Model the fold of this input.
Amino acid sequence: MISPGYMDTQLNDEAMLTQQKGFWTTITPMKRIGKADDLNGLAVFLSSDASGFMTGSNIFCDGGYHVF
Done:
C-alpha cells in the first residue's frame, strides 16, 4: 500500500486553497507538496518482481510528514 502525503493534484488546484497549500508546505520536512510523479518509482517497484516477497506493507511517500 502506498500512503501519499499532501499532494498537488487537479482536485486541489483551486485559488482558495493557496493558503492551505502554504501551510502543508511548512509542516512537511521536505518543505514542498508532493506531485503525482513522486509516486511513480514506488508504484513501479511494488508492481515488479523486486517486491515479490512483500506482503501487507504500508509505504509512506509523504516528504517525511509521518516522522512527526
About this structure: The two ends are 20 Å apart (CA to CA).
